[in-house]
């Protein structure tokens, strides 16, 4: 086993009512003036005002950038950065799901390092830590609140840039399930399947280690047990809290073992057609794992067992098939579209999408490396 390094924010708050503690912690860190990065929806329903009030109670001033797109763009980073500089902010608070977190990380990284966000595409390209980021999560899925991954759409090139950099790790992550209670069914399902994808890709990754394995398997168990309940009844706080823990565990796994072709391919669909990331992952997940079965059948059998499938007496290949069946069943039960055709994806774009997917840093740790033709074949199978 190769040597491994484990990355995680230094403080992580999880559980009902932890939002208030977060504001106190920010004051203890000596932060005075925050840029809150969020989206129009969360601003509209008053969640932003709630956070601003908690900050104000700790004498922390704040201004708001709520222009984040569902797939945050280079332009979003520029706009947020201009606001941060105008108000002389000393930290960034991201409020939302993966989109505001990624946008906030991009803003904080460029604020500290200069240049443009595209200068940092790839692995560890920055020279110094970003401005402090406090990530307050409202979805249970992306785990962006605790990772060193930042995904930004380059509008000029129609691709999603993967920025993997220890310097974009937030200093504090906050997962208060009360903030997740209002999440609509579709978003609960998509973000939950994103978390399952993180767990599975990290577990079969060529960079997996015993710590990431333990996190990934526990995440898969909790998602299999709680995602349906969280989707069916958004006010079920036990299911919401279980999903908050599960997505965090999955984040710990992939933040350190990285990912695979599901993400490398989903990023291209998101960048090209502006599609929701979690849905793209959910549709691609069984097809990529079918491809991975040739080298990772035993590992996929472990995932099947973690998801509650009885694998006693099954061969590795049968166990892998059972895993893929369990993934498909869960996706179906929570209302994920059956294939890419439902998402208006076009077959004539597959060659370009496959070329870009093979350049995505997430694919480098897939357990088996694919040819261009094989990636195109997986896209076709997912139609």
TrEMBL record:
For activity, the cofactor(s) needed are: Fe cation
| Top enzyme class | oxidoreductase
Q: Domain named Fe-containing alcohol dehydrogenase-like C-terminal: which ranges?
A: 188-383
Keyword vocabulary terms for this entry: NAD, Oxidoreductase
Q: Cross-referenced Gene3D superfamilies, in alphabetical order?
A: 3.40.50.1970, Dehydroquinate synthase-like - alpha domain (1.20.1090.10)
Name the CDD domains on file: PDDH (cd08188)
What Gene Ontology molecular function terms does this protein carry? Answer: alcohol dehydrogenase (NAD+) activity; L-threonine 3-dehydrogenase activity; metal ion binding
Specify the Alcohol dehydrogenase iron-type/glycerol dehydrogenase GldA domain's residue ranges. Answer: 10-177
Q: What is its EC number?
A: 1.1.1.103
* Pfam families xref list: ADH_Fe_C (PF25137), Fe-ADH (PF00465)
State the superkingdom.
Answer: Bacteria
Spell out the PANTHER family in the cross-references.
ALCOHOL DEHYDROGENASE, ALCOHOL DEHYDROGENASE 4
Q: What family does this chain come from, according to its entry?
A: Belongs to the iron-containing alcohol dehydrogenase family.
What protein name applies here? L-threonine dehydrogenase
């Amino acid at each position: 086993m190769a040597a491994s390094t484990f990355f995680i924010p230094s403080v992580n708050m999880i559980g009902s009512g932890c939002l208030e503690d977060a504001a106190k912690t920010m004051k203890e860190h000596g932060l005075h003036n925050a840029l809150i990065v969020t989206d129009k929806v969360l601003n509209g329903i008053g969640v932003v005002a709630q956070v601003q009030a908690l900050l104000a109670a700790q004498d922390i001033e704040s201004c708001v950038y709520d222009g984040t797109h569902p797939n945050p763009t280079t332009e979003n980073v520029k706009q947020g950065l201009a606001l941060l500089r105008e108000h002389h902010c000393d930290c960034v608070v991201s409020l939302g799901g993966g989109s505001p977190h990624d946008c906030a990380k991009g803003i904080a990284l460029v604020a500290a390092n200069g240049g443009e966000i595209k200068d940092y595409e790839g692995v560890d390209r920055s020279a110094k830590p970003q401005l402090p980021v406090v990530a307050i999560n409202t979805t249970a899925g992306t785990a962006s609140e605790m990772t060193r991954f930042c995904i930004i759409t380059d509008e000029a090139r129609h691709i999603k840039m993967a920025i993997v950099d220890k310097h974009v790790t937030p200093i504090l992550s906050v997962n208060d399930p009360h903030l997740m209670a209002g999440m609509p069914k579709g978003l609960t399902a998509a973000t939950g399947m994103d978390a399952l994808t993180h767990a599975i890709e990290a577990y079969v990754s060529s960079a997996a280690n015993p710590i990431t394995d333990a996190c990934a398997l526990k995440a898969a168990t909790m998602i299999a047990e709680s995602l349906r309940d969280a989707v069916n009844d958004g006010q079920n706080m036990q299911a919401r809290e279980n999903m908050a823990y599960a997505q965090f565990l999955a984040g710990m796994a992939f933040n350190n073992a990285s990912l695979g072709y599901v993400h490398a391919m989903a990023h291209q669909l998101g960048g090209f057609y502006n599609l929701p990331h979690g849905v793209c992952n959910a549709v691609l997940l069984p097809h990529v794992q079918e491809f991975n079965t040739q080298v990772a059948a035993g590992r996929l059998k472990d995932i099947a067992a973690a998801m509650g499938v009885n694998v006693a007496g099954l061969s590795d290949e049968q166990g892998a098939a059972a895993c893929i069946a369990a993934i498909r069943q869960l996706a179906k039960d929570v209302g994920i579209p059956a294939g890419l055709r439902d998402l208006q994806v076009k077959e004539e774009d597959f060659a370009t999408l496959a070329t870009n997917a093979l350049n995505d840093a997430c694919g480098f740790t897939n357990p088996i490396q694919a040819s261009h033709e094989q990636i195109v074949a997986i896209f076709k199978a997912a139609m």
